[in-house]
Amino acid sequence: MRLRSWTLRLSRQLSLSAVILAAILAPSGVAAQSSSPLDCDKGLQAHKVTVDRVSYRGRKAVRVRSLPSADAAYDTQKSGTGGGIVVLDRTSFHNGTIDVDVAGKPQANAPALARGFVGIAFRVPRDASTYDYVYIRPTNARADDQERRNHSTQYASFPNYEWLKLRTEFPGKYESYTDLIPGEWTHLKIEIHGVKMRLYVNGVSQPTLLVNDLKLGDRSGAVGLWIGVGTEAYFANLRLRPNLP
């Protein structure tokens, strides 16, 4: 009986220790998330793109593709990037971290300007009328042209501060180089606080791209899966870690 009682007490102590250790190791001010926002079909609201579920390079993924009709009508002289977004309308995000694996490549018969644009929009209203976003251009990273390589990552703001306006008025400020391979999985970590954004690519310790003046200011909204003209993109393992007040 004494041995059994001692065993029960030891088991309870070990369980309590595990709970305490988990609390210590959990990031401070981070809300736990039991599932990915990509898990629920009802929360995926497509705007000017198609969306479906597939298996891609060994992972369950959400595939997002630009519409052929929209690509055909795309005017390469305008300042936008075409494409569209899938709003995750069950998400609510203000400050914190967004982690996601993405893969992007140009579709067959895509416009010449297509680069496999793929990224994340944040603080998106339900109608997707305005949003900030950050994305990568996978085919630029290993181009045989340094200037094009320098355009591997990009921050922009829809609809008033698209890439061409930012590049023209603030050369080099809102884009940067990072190594990428079209069609391969790339991990993005996006840190957002107030009007600041930091993008980390493939687990680097220092930001690949820094923005200190998000054009839509400090606000809240949903998270969106963003793609550009002529793109076939895949998204997996999306996790939101909001900073609690």
Question: The biggest beta sheet, please?
Answer: 7 strands, antiparallel
- Any guess at the CATH architecture? Sandwich
- The count of domains is 1
Name of the top-level CATH class:
Mainly Beta
- Main structural class: alpha+beta
Question: What do the pLDDT scores average to?
Answer: 87
Strand order of the largest sheet: 1-4-13-6-7-8-9
Q: Specify the number of helices.
A: 4
- The coarse overall form would be globular
Please state roughly what percent of the residues sit in beta strands, choosing from under 5%, 5-15%, 15-25%, 25-35%, 35-45% or over 45%. 35-45%
C-alpha Rg, in Å? Answer: 21 Å
Number of strands: 14
Describe the structure.
- The protein has 245 residues and is of the alpha+beta class.
- The chain contains four helices and 14 strands.
- It has a seven-stranded antiparallel β-sheet. It has a seven-stranded antiparallel β-sheet with strand order 2-3-14-5-10-11-12.
- The model is unreliable at 13-33 (pLDDT under 50).
Structure described in brief:
The protein is an alpha+beta fold and 245 residues long.
Provide keyphrases for this structure.
single chain; 245 residues; alpha+beta; Jelly Rolls; seven-stranded antiparallel beta sheet; 4 helices
SSE inventory with pairings:
Elements: H1 2-25, E1 44-47, E2 49-56, E3 59-66, H2 68-73, E4 84-93, E5 96-106, E6 118-124, E7 131-136, H3 146-149, E8 153-158, H4 163-169, E9 175-176, E10 186-193, E11 196-201, E12 209-211, E13 221-227, E14 231-242
